[in-house]
Specification:
By secondary structure, the protein is an all-alpha fold. The protein is built from 9 helices and no strands.
C-alpha cells in the first residue's frame, strides 16, 4: 500500500475510505466486540491518531461505516405503486439489511453502546432518525401527520423487538403481513 499524504485534521477522502473499508471488513470477520481502533488502523494502513482525530470512538467509526454500507446496500424507497406496495418494498429492504451477515449483531452492539456511552448516544439517535425519516416521508401522501410517527414506530418497533429478542423472523412474509396491516389501517 502506497503511503498517503499527511493532511492533519482535514480528512483525506482516500484515507477515510480505507478506514471505513477496513472497519467493514473487520466487522464481517471478527464482529464488533473483537474490533479495536488499533486493528482498524493497522488494516487501513494509518495511525491510530488519525482515527481518533476524525472520530471520537470506535463506535463512531463503526456507525459511519454502517451509514456508508447502508447507502450502497439499502435501495431508495419506491415512489410508485400503492401504499401497501411501497411499504412492502421499504420494510422488506430494511429487514433484509438487518439480516445481512453480522448486521443484526452490529445493530444490537451499537444500540448497547448508545446506552453505555452518553456521548455516542445522540449520534446513534441521529442515525435512527434518518432511517425513520425515510419511512415517514414515504407515508406522507396517505397517512396524516398525527399517525405517521405511530406507523413508523410500529415498523421499527417490530424490527428492534425481533432483533433483540429473536422472537420471530424478519423475512419477506413478515414484511408483507406488516405492510398489509399498516395499509389497511391507513384506509
Amino acid at each position: 500500500m502506497a503511503p498517503r499524504p499527511h493532511t492533519g485534521p482535514k480528512r483525506n477522502e482516500q484515507t477515510r475510505q480505507a478506514i471505513l473499508d477496513a472497519t467493514q471488513r473487520l466487522l464481517r470477520e471478527d464482529g464488533y466486540p473483537a474490533l479495536t481502533v488499533g486493528a482498524i488502523a493497522t488494516a487501513a494502513g494509518v495511525g491510530r491518531q488519525t482515527i481518533y482525530r476524525w472520530w471520537p470512538s470506535k463506535a463512531d467509526v463503526v456507525l459511519e461505516a454502517l451509514i456508508e454500507w447502508g447507502a450502497t446496500t439499502v435501495p431508495a424507497p419506491r415512489s410508485d405503486g400503492t401504499l401497501e406496495q411501497r411499504l412492502n418494498a421499504f420494510i422488506t429492504a430494511t429487514f433484509d439489511g438487518a439480516q445481512e451477515p453480522g448486521a443484526a449483531a452490529l445493530l444490537k452492539a451499537l444500540a448497547a453502546e448508545s446506552q453505555r456511552n452518553l456521548e455516542f448516544a445522540p449520534r446513534f439517535a441521529e442515525f435512527l432518525a434518518a432511517r425513520r425519516a425515510v419511512l415517514h416521508d414515504l407515508l406522507a401522501p396517505e397517512i396524516p401527520d398525527d399517525r405517521r410517527a405511530l406507523t413508523t414506530d410500529l415498523v421499527f418497533g417490530l424490527l428492534w423487538y425481533r432483533l433483540i429478542t429473536r422472537s420471530g423472523p424478519l423475512d419477506a412474509q413478515t414484511a408483507q403481513a406488516l405492510s398489509a396491516l399498516l395499509a389497511r389501517a391507513a384506509e
